[in-house]
Amino acid sequence: MGMMEDGIEKMGGMGMANGTVGGANGPLAAAVAASKNRRRPNNEIINNSMNNQQKIIRPMSHNNNLNNNGLSAPNSNNSMNNNYLDQTTLQQQSAMASSGLQQGGSPLQQPSTVLPQPNQTSLQQQSSSPLQQQSASMILSSGSSSASPTPNGISALSPTMMNSQSIDHQNSHSIPLSLSNTPGAVGVVGLGGGSEPVSPALTPVGSPRLNSSVDPSNRFSSIDSIIGQIYPLCKDQHGCRFLQKKLEEQSPRIVDIIFNEVSEHMVELMTDPFGNYLCQKLLEHCSDKQRLMIVEKVASDLVTISQNMHGTRAVQKMIEYLSSSSQIKLIINALRSSVVTLIQDLNGNHVIQRCLNRLTPQDNQFIYDAVASHCVEVATHRHGCCVMQRCIDHASDKQKLQLIKEITAQVMVLVQDPYGNYVVQYVLDLSHDAYKDWLNGLVRKMLGNIVELSRQKFSSNVIEKCLHVADGPTRALMIQELMEGDSLLMLLQDPFANYVIQTALNVSEIPQHTRLVECIKPHLASLRNTPYGKRIQNKILKERDITEKTRNKKH
């Protein structure tokens, strides 16, 4: 080997005029340089080979299906060998460079390092489809200025391509590829650097979409292309969105196609995270006959669906679009036996409230009957107290009186409850004259317990409300009860009852107001050091100053 190298060096020094063999820039000079590279230690050759292999096996980037250097990853499923640059290949290159000839026997065309590439014929044979063959053919037939074609499809790479930026190897591994219809420029397959545009993009199977702004539901071309697959698509986010868009076209044919495939699955779809939206849209655009069929299909499961976080929305939409008395009767019969259960449910209570909003008071009578029969159970529940107030809002006069009677009968229990007290206050706020007698009757129901109720957190609010809304005689009876016995000092110092006394001072008529102040004055000294009694003391002193000023003006 040494003799051959010495001979080559001598020939290079001859500098033959035709430039075919010798000269400083001739092919033999490149051959000498390549031959000298063989003197490097084997481990250095192996390391370079491994580095080049890592450049070849590169995960795809999410930007136009390219990696960081604009190169597409190889297809690990094809029979192409990705390990081009092993030690044997480098030795063959050096031998070829030493002889100054390619495999075809002609001189080398470029002085740069030669990397073997799969020839065009073999690549096309290995492609699994005509489209892949076309893409592979385009890869090798690129008119790049940085890579020069040589016989047998071997490209000689320029220093520009070989000296491209380094690649991060931490996640280097093979990814299955599939040909994408998305146009884009990629580099030469199997190389670790360069940015030569040569072919449409090769996209990893299962990779993210190229453009996140594109609506994925657009992948469905038409309703006819998914006939027979509509039911599973209802439970897919993008499929469901596509079907909703089709229903919005208000085409009877499309509505019929979708209805025929999903009508048997309405119970399941109404509780599905995505399917419930399709059900809502279908209920909106279907015919009365189809809507009746849907109601009949789900009636037996309507309570269960209403308690589901997704189903409650579909049931509310169903109630909103009820269009015939037969549909309404089916809904009423399905809900009648479970009104209280639904009222106390986190999701079901919205179904009852939608009935109150959309149905007539006569159709909602089944709700008022259930609420009146379970007044305490409903009014003392966190959701029930809200539904009870909505019942009062939407009730006819007869239905309101029905509820007032039941609330009055249970008023002592309700006013002391954290939720029930709000129901009583809501009734007391009814301003229609037709209810005045009933409201005064409700207030009188609490007489004899005013002191006790004034000292409790929830019921003290109700007593204050009663002092504002009760008629004169009833109000006077309440204030008189506050002044009797030895309870006044206790009320003045109580954290809740002191507000009742302040309200009594504000609403009482002059004769009774004077008596109340006179009853409080003996206790003013003891109120100075209490945070609650001090408010009443300041109030009385302020009133006394105002009275004296008024009296002085008269004189």
Q: Describe it for me?
A:
By secondary structure, this protein is mostly helical. 57% of the residues lie in helices and 2% in strands. The chain has 33 helices and four strands. Strands 1-2 form a two-stranded antiparallel ribbon. The protein has a two-stranded antiparallel ribbon with strand order 3-4. Helix 1 (2-14) runs antiparallel to helix 2 and helix 9 packs parallel to helix 12 (275-285). The protein is elongated. The N and C termini lie far apart (138 Å). 32% of the residues are buried. The model is unreliable at 1-25, 27-32, 34-86 and 99-212 (pLDDT under 50).
What's the alpha carbon Rg, rounded to whole Å? 45 Å
Apparent shape: elongated
Main sheet makeup: 2 strands, antiparallel
Helical coverage, percent range: 55-70%
Q: Write down how many β-strands occur, each being a DSSP E stretch of 2 or more residues.
A: 4
Terminal CA distance: 138 Å
Mean pLDDT over all positions: 73
Question: What's the assembly state of these chains?
Answer: single chain
**Sheet with most strands: strand arrangement:** 1-2
> Are there runs of 5+ residues with pLDDT below 50, and where?
1-25, 27-32, 34-86, 99-212
The number of helical runs is 33
- The percentage of residues in β strands lies in under 5%
User: How would you classify the helix and strand content by structural class?
Assistant: mainly alpha
